[in-house]
Prior knowledge:
With 428 residues, this protein is of the alpha+beta class. Helices cover 34% and strands 22% of the residues.
Amino acid sequence: MARRWFRLDTAALIFPAIARRDWCNVFRVSATLREPVDTALLQRAVDDTKARFPTFFVRLRKGFFWYYLEESREPLRVRQDYAYPLTYMSSRELKRNCMRVLVYENRIAVECFHALTDGRGGITYLTNLVARYLALKDGLSLPAGDPIRDLREKPPAEELEDSFLKNAAEVAMSRREEASWRLRGTREPRGYRHLITGIAEAEVLRNRAREMGVSVTSLLAGTLALSILEMQAEARPNRKRRRPVKITIPVDLRRLYGSRTLRNFSLVLNLGVDPRYGDYTLEELCRSMEHQLRAGATPQNMAGMIAANVQPQQVLALRLAPVWIKNAVMDLVYRRSGEMGGINLSNLGLLKLPAELDARLERAEFVIGPQRTYPNNCSVISQGGRTYINMIRNIRESELERRFFSHLVEAGIPIAIESNRRMDECTA
């Protein structure tokens, strides 16, 4: 019997092309329960979700013209969590499965190759996996809705669609922008990743953002920008030699266009300030980030950005080119404009769950890996009254985290710090 296959969505096309032997774009979503996880029952839950979420149970295949996703030949087996978050997904692993389900004591983690979906799609799958596990374990029954799906129903076409194709403008927006100042550091051997988690009371964080007249995302982006501006000022005392500092913010396009797709449907905005024009207070930075985010995240503006990604696919010469030529072109485009911003700040916001399910979770987390050429990244999610801010890096130096969390504390936001290595790496 022929196996089901799926075209890569518009955003996913870039990820196989820019993967390297020591890096590919992977993210993690996880839920920590209030009791140890029964691995055998979790395996049953994984198997039970396969038919309802077919685009998650796939492997990466290389065709003559394009990469594509094909139904996995090997069953997806639950594994014990190991090493450090987001260990490298090799091409050999991607040819078997593009997703991992990992267990460590009370925690269920799902790690996805970004060609499958984005953070919103990943958290939707995790939520349904946990709900199915608790149904098998304790008989928990939840009504279908959002985000809970009826596992008996056939996945609707709108969940499987490439929503970029439906929402592109007729005119594409230019990709040109000035490059930002970039953090550097001493690379850790064997791809080791440091993960420092700052935990804040969600209400305290929201109230402080309201006092400034900004969103939580803008508050965090402004604090990151302040930390990086300080580091650049120390590295480059001559103001004329400094460069813009940018924070890259992914925007979930489902809200703008009413999409229900579970595939990738987000684009990034690079929000920035130029230190050559003067110094900024934290409040000024946060308000600047808020204004730029509101101005950029409009349906019209994002449609132009979507068109910049969609239109190259429609060029006949590129469509007929073999995949190795497409890879070279996309890699060149990525090197010139793919990481023109800076640290990625990805905020999934409040994880909205049915009360019965929310009460069974001790915490939820969202972790994105470092970019190909930028050593730090930041991802955020709120659940159970707390906001979890995950700072990941593949370099030894922890100066950015130290400054960032210290500034949040100075702004009146107490932060509890956890680390996957040493508790003394950050002293906020």
